[in-house]
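Researcher: Quick one. two chains, 1283 residues in total.
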Amino acid sequence: MGEYEPTIIAFVCNWCTYTAADLAGTSRLTYPPNVRMIRMMCTGMVDPKYVIKALLEGADAILISGCHPGDCHYINGNYKARRRVKLLKEILPRFGFDERRLKLTWIGASEGVDFAKTIKEMVTEIKELGPNDVREQMVL
Amino acid sequence: MKKKIGSTLVVGSGISGIRSALDMAEQGYQVTLIDKEPHLGGVLTQLDYQFPTDHCGMCKMLPLVERDSSSQYCLRKGLFHENIDIMLSTELVAMEGEPGKFQVTLRQKSSIVDQERCIGCGECARVCPVEAPDPFNGGLTDRKAIYLPVPHNIPNAYVVDLDACTHCGECEKICPTHAIDFGKEERKKFRILVVDDELIVRDSLKEWLLDEGFDVDMAESGTEALEKMSKEHFHLKLLDIKMPGMDGVEVLKRAKEIRPDLPVVMMTAYATVETAVEAMKIGAHDYLMKPFDPDNLIPLIVNLYHDIQSAGVKEMEVGSVILAGGFDSYDPSTGKDTYGYGLFPNVVTSLQFERMVSGTGPNQGKILRPSDGKEVKKIAWFQCVGSRDQQADADFCSSACCMFAIKEALLAKEKSEGQIDTTIFYMDMRTFGKDFQRYRDRAEKESGVHFERSRVHSVETTGKDDGTLRVAYADTTGTKHEEDFDLVVLAAGQRPPTGAEEVAETCGVVLNPWGFCQVEGFSLSRTSSEGVLVGGSFSGLRDISESVIQASSASLEASRLIHSKGGGLAEEVSPETGFRDVSREMPQVLAVLCKCGGTLSESADFDEISSWLEAQGSVTGVHAIDSLCTHEGWDELKETLQGNSANRILIASCMPYVYARKLRELGRSAELNPELMEVVDIRTLAFPGRDTEKEAVHQEVRAVLSMGIGKLKGMDPLPVATSRIVQKALVVGGGIAGMTAGLAIADHGFEVTLVEKAAELGGNARTLHRTIEGHSPQELLEESISKVEKHPLIRTHTGAKIIYSQGHVGNFSTSIEKEDGQGETLDHGVTVLATGGIEAKTESYSYGESEAILTQHDLEEKLAEGGVEPANLKTVAMIQCVDSREEPRNYCSRICCQSALKNALFFKKQNPETDIYIFYRDMMSYGFMETYYSEARKAGVIFVPYDVGQKPEVSVEDGRPRLSALDPILGREWLLEPDLLVLSTGVVPDAGREVAEQFGVEVNQDGFYQEAESKWRPVDFIKEGVFMCGLAHSPRSIAESVAMAEAAAQRALRILNSDRLASGSVVAEVRHSLCALCERCVAFCPYEARHHDEDEEMIVVNELMCQGCGSCAAVCPNSASVLRGYRDQQVFEVIDAALENVV
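Model:
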């Protein structure tokens, strides 16, 4: 086993970030293979329980990424996500999670470069933070 | 489902072409959408950012109802709709017939690469030895001769640039899927006849052509050639012009008689080029210059071969043709003043700059100097390059560049976190559109973009040879300045698209003096040829929202024509497809693995993946297919599914996007709901060359497959719901816009009720007597009123008002009070609000204190009544932007500058001695209106700019106005005692706020209706089923109001068209047993698709209005609100699958 490789669960919106990730793939931009992408219709539908569930199941970090403010295909879903993430970041420490394990970004459909960059940066950050060991500490 | 028979051809797949195509398709017509480029999307493929959000939002144009018939992903990536056939690299070459029944001939260029087989791996580009400037990046980067036209488009298949290609054949050899074929085998059957009197020419040509694999025959004279032609079949003739006896031109003439379809290429020495050009006029395909050099000649002939042989020709019948060819950008290097473009690398065009800030641009979005790659610190924008320039033969304004420049300056600020210094050098900042002025003000005041009204004198280097540019300019006072910049961006104007003349000739449409398509009368979409409509910038110079409006206006006219010819009346019933009911079966997944033509075996072991899949609980079968994207592969899959009991299909291949349409087909043939099929991308993960070990790749592939299975297992699709539609419309407002919209809907056979609060129809147009172009609004008015009154399907209520309205798309119920005080309740499926606007009242500039102080509207009335005698006027002054373009009315009213120009020109014509002064801030004579501005200046009208902080001052003495104003150019004060002082006070909405409340829709801060999206949905309210048009949306001219009314009618027709409409498959539902009626979901729904039914005590979802965003599901504290396809259990399964191998 080599260096610790974190696993990131990314909830990406169907319209912007999913397209950006696809563009990153087809443009052969390299980014670490640590991310598992879950396509949602909108970031506004990412239920906090999905985030907590993923962290409890062993994900080291969660990325929620959608359209830029003002660009949401569904008018204002990304604003709803923003509010929710702010609250979640306050709640997460009570579950024993470092709030840095949750990240919200806006990545537009044409921003494949930004997607690759975001993943790279996130992997570096989480490597510094170390593995998510809450699951082991918890008696479920 | 009922389908209309009727079809249309849309030429050009830019934003307006896409809008028109979608409009027609949503209405049920068959659409063929063609583009001469090998990609979809026009110029917008190059623009990543659009104001006002400075990002994109194009996907908002996709259908909102019946949305499963179309793609549900980023529209810049691609488009599919069941009723749209897209043909790229295709041109319209011939059109015959009559409106309603045209026979069109389309010609599709060969792309050499089989678009189906190409997997976009890029190996071909890697080995291609040819570098050519990449037009996608405005020539700032190079690409190979075989290339991807647009990096983000699908299908992302490569194409060959035959002009650059040397036919070395390297790509053909390396292609792993054998998708590239230069047709060498086929060439043996291609017979070329070489006709030349010189033996050496014949022999060398024969040798070279044989080497290339062609079949060659020769003739040494015209007579011999004609003889051979009459006996044998040839595909191409190379014909020398200068021959003893019968010369080439004569041979050509006779050859055309024997075999009119044989392409003839003339061969000529320099001296006879003119003859060659003449020969082309009488039917020669092309000409070649002697002396021949095989390196140049062979590619030319091979290109000709591809041109002649490989091009696909398709003939079809269509009811109408919509031209949406867009525009070309002006090339500054062709101008008299090039501003150093083409000479200094740091001078770029606005389009090139757009590429510089793009992530797919030359530096991944970093703004670096092209000369040395250093970071840019200071940028200058020069406006009106190749526009408003009579020397460049462009006495017009390109309309969009001002906003383009402001947006780019803001992007530069954003990308550099405010570090880049930005200056826009301009003549007039034309912020005439809705909300443009506030955008400009924010750029200036909040983001620090510097605006400099000036004339740029020159651009030079600093002499230090470091790439920095020195800009010399004169400010408004005439003072000269010099300033250094890292980058100069030229706002290059618009020009007619290449090939405009040919298209115009083919379709019989007239072009205007600048080569754009001429539109007729008060229509922005009708051309001189009936049945041929125009959309977007091909008729000149417009931004996205205006293009979208005009494109919809074009589709409305196209549809009206087809309908009037009977094409739209016939309905055919397509058999309803039934899917197998699998709801009571356990999930049985068939996994289909695409091996991508064997390319993935290097990095992944398919046997291992297969056996892992087989071990998964719900997987009942695994099937590997060599290449799923080919016909053979797809047929293999179809066969596999025949009789297979699997009720879920997992396809592991590449680009899930590409499959959207195919899955629907597959669903029909396998009688399985396509919602039960999922495509996951394993190719990106397993692609060779990715620096990852096999085991790591396997782990990723397994996770992705597992996630797909997880999602599929929980899929529980219900039959898509349909809702009844009341096929009637209500139009509120009986002005030009309201009447136009009403007529457009009624002409399609639907009942319309038109409600007008005034005693008579007509609105503002009643008081308008002529337009600047010389058209008569009164004629339009009379014609419209008479049509409305005579129309059997239109009921008009004048002197009536709206009392109350309720309901939703498809089913509205509105109560009105009629003139006689009686009430009536109307049921309707759609609502069009056209409540209009009025001239703003003012108290500024002593208005009301003197009879000589009038508004533009007062003047118009007085002129019509004969209350003003132009011959007696010595001095007339006009003040623009009265109370406008500053808070609280911080918007441009768009029409006042044309009114001022129109009236000034009228006075000058009546009495050239009258002195006319127009005090203005920015003359908003956008588009072709610019010519009237030029004309007014030529006629001696004096234009004096003023600053909003230093307005002219007016007082009244003895009933006469006195005006004083500072002239910044002369640096002195004007003191005038005009006989008439005319104030341009602009437009305010009439009854917007009140009516908006009644219909539950929004207005903006100025009281104009708030559209769902300013660019992509300009006539829709967020509330589906309610549309807006005319002055109630924003100030606009009559023609612009007409176009908007047609667009609103078009949007309404897509709903009225059938008696039932289907929602999407991804919609919300409520599990009532868990619901606590807290109504949070009702408040959270952005589409007002939910309401609390108090009688039934439940939350009800309107499935037609629900767009499937899932906000309600996320906000519901009891998990009672659920989004189909994204149930909690499903998402949890997917999360579990994603993390299966972790820990």
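Chain A has a mean pLDDT of 91.
Researcher: Thanks, that's what I needed.
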